[in-house]
Write a structure and sequence with these properties.
By secondary structure, the protein is mostly helical. It is built from 10 helices and no strands. The chain has helices at about 5-15, 20-40, 45-60, 70-90, 95-105, 110-130, 130-145, 150-155, 160-175, 180-190.
């Protein structure tokens, strides 16, 4: 989804628009669920995580700043929701050590902002290194929010070619960024 279009939805959401909320939910829901199920392994836990994140977005909609990154805001909520999940699973005393050992997640709000910004910059640098056609397809998909069918039509290629190029781009980003880090996988899943 383009930055301008997303900003419009955020302005409407702040005013209590259910349709704007539904739209943002539909844009991010599948990516968040795919990440959650891959990490939490339990379908019910993953669904609950997605619901919890969006309930928090709705409850705090009046605090949204349309001039700030919604991606960053959602990233922080998702991260904190995952931390809360592990807090329930681990004993309170061992919580911080458990999280650090098993996920590499930090709990500092300052670190969250720096982490997101650094990951975003690194991801953008890597996207610039993609082959030109793959970069163009990726840009149309992730940044412009076009469907695979729309991209295929615009570029006069098959939908399968579009899917393959996006898959290759995602694989490249994961290999270059991830090294199995939970926070990087969350970032890629949600925003790239």
């Amino acid at each position: 989804m383009g930055e301008y279009r997303e900003k419009d939805y955020i302005i409407k959401l702040k005013k209590g628009s259910f349709s704007a909320f539904d739209h943002l939910f539909s844009v991010y829901r599948e990516r968040l669920y795919a990440f959650a199920i891959g990490y939490l392994k339990m379908e019910e836990d993953a669904k609950e995580l997605v619901q919890d994140v969006f309930v928090k977005v709705w409850e705090n909609r009046h605090k949204l700043d349309e001039d700030k990154s919604f991606n960053s805001y959602l990233f922080t909520i998702a991260k904190n929701t995952i931390l809360n999940y592990f807090r329930k699973k681990a004993s309170e005393q061992a919580y911080i050590e458990y999280i650090k050992k098993h996920t590499g997640l930090s709990v500092s709000p300052v670190e969250e902002k720096v982490e997101f910004s650094e990951l975003q910059k690194k991801a953008q640098d890597l996207i610039e290194q993609l082959p030109p056609r793959q970069r163009e397809i990726y840009h149309l998909s992730r940044e412009k929010g076009l469907s695979n069918e729309e991209i295929a039509r615009i570029l006069h290629i098959t939908k399968k070619t579009v899917e393959n190029q996006i898959t290759l781009a995602m694989k490249y980003l994961r290999e270059k960024l991830a090294q199995g880090s939970l926070i990087v996988l969350l970032f890629i899943t949600l925003f790239y």
